[in-house]
């Protein structure tokens, strides 16, 4: 049987996320765009995205974030991609609703500096330590949570985190190195996971896009350059 295209493998993985059902601590909800009321729309767009950028058998280097938020992948199903970036940068029509994510704005600055989505996604696959997100109600308003924000949440999510990372390692993934978005707690936890699961030879930390856009906005172009240097250790010059 011919080897499946990477697009097919990732789509199967996303479909498995639609069935995810683990108990979160009281007061914390699971953010799952693949199983929500917009799931039909999400899979239409995800299908287009994967067929456009991953319909091949080439190896990718993995970039690993924390977990999806309400306005990025928690909304669109595509990591660090909001509806603005889908429409304007990926040229994939998404008119059902509108979302804007600060992290997505930065990531697509990097992507466009690298050479655009086609060039970038040919080399890289973006995922997250936990591929589903979490929300908590605070004073009647839903806010994002990170998988490591409470010990109880981490304990509940850990079996899911391990199993989904191992599933993705069955793709054609560069096992020599990966990049970790989040140089603090996310990096520390991924190092521990890596010691246990032996996923990569090297994990390279980089500041998280949200941190950059919230606290280092005046230095965004410096951070774009830092990202490019880490994404491109061979030193190829991009526009």
Characterization of the model:
This protein is of the alpha/beta class. The protein has a single domain (6-231), classed as Uracil-DNA Glycosylase, subunit E, CATH 3.40.470.10. Helix content is 45%, strand content 15%. The protein contains ten helices and seven strands. The chain has helices at residues 6-17, 39-53, 73-76, 83-88, 102-114, 117-123, 151-168, 185-197, 209-215, 220-231; strands at residues 28-31, 61-65, 124-128, 133-138, 141-145, 177-181, 202-206. The strands form two sheets. A four-stranded parallel β-sheet has the order 3-2-6-7, with helices on both faces. It has a three-stranded antiparallel β-sheet with strand order 1-4-5, with no helix packed on it. Helix 8 (185-197) links the parallel strand 6 (177-181) and strand 7 (202-206). The radius of gyration is 17 Å and the shape is globular. The protein starts with 5 loop residues before the first helix and ends in an 8-residue tail after the last helix.
